[in-house]
Amino acid sequence: MKTAIVTDSTAYIPQHIRESHDIHMIPLSVNFGNETYQEEIEITSQQFFEKMRNQQELPTTSQPSIGMFVELFEILSKEYDAVISIHLSSGISGTYNGAATAGDMVENIEVYTFDTEVSAMVQGFYALEAAEMAQAGKAPTDIMARLEEMKKTMSAYIMVDDLTNLQKGGRLSGAAALIGSLLQVKPILHFENKVIVPYEKVRTKKKALNRVFDLLHEDAKDNEPMRVVVIHANRPEEAEKMKEELQEKYENIECMVSYFGPVVGTHLGEGAIGIGWYKK
């Protein structure tokens, strides 16, 4: 049985890795007024943050249409027997439900949908693992079982550099954002029950990073093989430095760098840093 792997653009898997793993990507969109851009296709992360700096209003985001999924699945049905469609958390987007609905509408191919309950490259880890198994000829049910198993050790934490976007998006009151900015409060966020919630609030970015490194150390200290990703919102040099530090400290981790693109970056704002990992 030949199985195709699909994910959406919010996995932010670098293009060369998507291509080498034969991962098919369906885009979400970001909207500046009447202008709509499909992320990863019509606008890059860097272009997005440059454009957002000059906007007074926060851009909006939109999920792919069911029709886009149907079209992709029908194309894949000509070459594949099954599809595993892997998406960002259903608690923050209807993308997963759209894929599931589309899967019920197509014939000649079996569609399995998977809710990662996270986003960004941590979501991408599921797609990479699925792709590696598909290329090895594993059955779709075996791949789905492995994805569920991965959830047990999957962790993701996000440090927001500026509270403005969270406040504009209604996730933080104006007074709290003002006080937080004055006190330099840096919230550490994580996914819980499929939505993004505060994990801890610390006073400085350095303390926030150290706290997340402590959490990573708890999982890494037993020397089991791990995959780790540093994710940045237009801070590539900072992310690369963190990657090098982690690789020097731990021999058991495979570390990479990814980014927050337009859709997720809309809510987190420029300068956000995320770290995610799981045990292989």
Automatic annotation (TrEMBL):
Q: Does the keyword Transferase apply?
A: no
Which keywords appear in this protein's UniProt record, sorted alphabetically? Answer: Lipid-binding
Q: State the Pfam families in the record.
A: DegV
> InterPro entries annotated for this entry?
DegV, DegV_C, DegV_domain_contain
Q: Which PANTHER family match?
A: DEGV DOMAIN-CONTAINING PROTEIN DR_1986-RELATED, FATTY ACID-BINDING PROTEIN TM_1468
**Designated name of the protein:** DegV family protein
Species of origin reads Metabacillus endolithicus
